[in-house]
Amino acid sequence: MPSTSLPFLRGWSRDPVAVGLPIPSSPWTARRLAQATLDAAIDGGGPVLELGAGAGAVTQALLDGGCAKDQLVVVERDAELCRILERRFHGLCILQGDALDVAGLLTAARIASVSVVLSGLPMRAVAPAAAIRCYSGAFGLMPQGGAIIQYTYGFKSPVDPGRSPPRLDATFVGREWRNVPPMAIWSYRQTPRASMLND
User: Fold this and answer.
1) Averaged pLDDT, 51-70
2) Any idea where the domains of the chain sit in the sequence?
3) How far apart are CA 135 and CA 125, in angstroms?
């Protein structure tokens, strides 16, 4: 078992809903997620924000994909996983806390804007009101046109794009079959009308 898998498994045993599954993303999935995230980032919008970094598989892929360390912020709830991230990525901005309260966490860290959000949160297991609060907070941190890249193990969109607020345009990016279990990647943007109402 890889060195990062055991802490990930322990994190899952402590809080299965927060972690989602007890195994990290595969290298193929991590690279594909990183590419989708970096492709969606808005130039000059601020750092890339990763929600639910786990043991750092996707974090590493983001750095390998060209994201500068000082342009990446990660949020992780589990204390042990945060310590692993701090050892693995010395100097990276790591925020320990509940990523569902993303607006509050970033306000406390004095981060006013981000260029894109990558979410590994198990949104299918999150209460709808909490999911709405998380996504609303995330879109409030991005310039108009910002995207949330969300990955999930399910076959349907993990977030209902018709719920309000915010109303979303959902795009299925693809499925990574080499992950165990297979991983689906979605991209969400606010509809133009929702964006204008939030400005």
Assistant:
1) 96
2) 5-198
3) 15
Q: What is the pLDDT at residue 73?
A: 98
How far apart are alpha carbons 50 and 37 in whole angstroms? 9
Residue whose tokens read 């492709």: 39
Q: Largest Cα–Cα distance of the chain, in whole Å?
A: 49
What's the whole-model pTM score? 0.84
Indicate if the alpha-carbon torsion angle 66, 185, 3, 52 is positive or negative. Answer: positive
CATH architecture entry for 5-198: 3-Layer(aba) Sandwich (3.40)
Do residues 194 and 181 make contact, with C-beta atoms less than 8 angstroms apart? no
* 19: confidence class by pLDDT, cuts 50, 70, 90: very low
CA neighbor of 122 nearest in space, from 6, 12, 2, 3: 12
